[in-house]
Amino acid sequence: MSTMPLHTEFDSIEALGAALRQGKVSALELADSALDAIQAQSGLNAFLHVDAELTRAQARAADDLLGQGRGGSLTGIPIAHKDVFVTRGWRTTAASKMLADYTSPFDATVVSLLEQAGAVSLGKLNCDEFAMGSGNENSAFGPARNPWDADAVPGGSSGGSAAAVAAGLVMAATGTDTGGSVRQPAALCGVSGIKPTYGTVSRFGMVAFGSSLDQAGPLARHARDLLELLDPISAFDQRDATSLPDCDGAANQSGRVRAQFDAAVAAQQEGGAKPLQGLRIGVPAEFFNEGLSPEVAQAVESALQTYESLGARRVEISLPRTKLSIPAYYVIAPAEASSNLSRYDGVRYGHRTASYGDLADMTSRSRAEGFGPEVLRRILVGTYVLCHGYYDAYYLQAQRIRRLIAQDFQQAFADHCDVIMGPVTPSVAKRIGENRDDPTADWLADVYTLGVSLAGLPAMSIPCGFSSSAKPLPIGLQLIGDYFREGQLLAIADRFQQATDWHQRKPEQQ
């Protein structure tokens, strides 16, 4: 018996939206079938909290709008949210024991904007605890599993989001990217995901990890579906001190990304058989080193050749400080995490130990019990590098390296290329528990994504191949753009997906 929900019969959000507006299917029917599928595929552990009545209430509201002829592009579309976006009704745990029973009195801006656009939420998605991890193995509620191989990780920290999209449980999902946490799971699960320019999407209501790095972004099967979510959530928010009112002269508001996408597509159409004529693709030599799996290298090379057949020109470039992104990131991010997570002290909200002596003992015990090993590890590292006597030696130096990394990217865009392409990860998804004895091994796997996050640039992952293993696992291609070029990136990705079918391939039900 099939457990695939009704929305999987449609190739895109656009097609499903048209069917909803024409009355061929209702939002409530879509919601009910998706809820059934989530239950049937609960073994993936993609969802942390589902509330059928909350979902059905949103679906009924969407149907009311559709019945009045007022439905928009997302009205009735089933999505879900990574469990670091606070939500009314659904619990917000950040996949941590520390927040196991927390329910927010307000919605995150991203959640609110998508609800206003008519999207129907199916619940909250699994992730690494406080978004700290690369495999979703750090969740206090157990790892999400890769739909292509249940013994493999789905990537992290947005592993539940990528797994839910790949398994067909949702049309799209929200995620967050601090050092690659949208792009990496998208690559390992064979879906598409984009991290926009830092500051273009509000962080208000997002459980903070690294405040100068965290950025929300959607995951979906292909680039055009990403556009449908990214455009409405890209907007200035005065409640977020890091939100940008302007994006290179254009107001940061809904419509900006779509207008840029439409303009890029129109320009491509003028190229005829060579729609990407004139596009310069920068290929960093540092992305193709001894640590890169031959299978990943071959898939990326094949994707680059496809782009060349569409008229693009390959340009060899250098990002000389690529390797320095790992030590720089793993000083800056833990330092910011140490500061952000100091609010979880057992006093106001969150986990409180049952037995303690004084206030200091209560705080110490509550944090030791509430946080998992990876979170504690990063808090300790972050606290150390912020200590008097070490701040200048570590944190300040890391920030200087961060500026140099950003300059490398800017020089490449200014002098050599329009977009940068390369691998997302050095290898395909590892087995669950594979690096259990070496907790920092996963840090090295972020080498191709961290520099982008440190620079605050937009970047995305799209499927470009599979491994040759007994259970073939997906491989992703990374596209990196200049600041505020999200629409252009999506159009370039869309052109590739018109010429290939990697994004259309779906895993068998586990």
TrEMBL record:
GO molecular function, one term: ATP binding
Residue numbers annotated as active site: K82 (charge relay system), S157 (charge relay system), S181 (acyl-ester intermediate)
Pfam families, A to Z: Amidase
SUPFAM superfamilies: Amidase signature (AS) enzymes (SSF75304)
Catalyzed reactions: L-glutamyl-tRNA(Gln) + L-glutamine + ATP + H2O = L-glutaminyl-tRNA(Gln) + L-glutamate + ADP + phosphate + H(+)
InterPro entries, per database record: Amidase (IPR000120), Amidase_CS (IPR020556), Amidase_dom (IPR023631), AS_sf (IPR036928), GatA (IPR004412)
Recorded superkingdom: Bacteria
Transmembrane intervals: none
Keywords: ATP-binding, Ligase, Nucleotide-binding, Protein biosynthesis, Transferase
Job description of the protein: Allows the formation of correctly charged Gln-tRNA(Gln) through the transamidation of misacylated Glu-tRNA(Gln) in organisms which lack glutaminyl-tRNA synthetase. The reaction takes place in the presence of glutamine and ATP through an activated gamma-phospho-Glu-tRNA(Gln).
Name of this chain's protein: Glutamyl-tRNA(Gln) amidotransferase subunit A
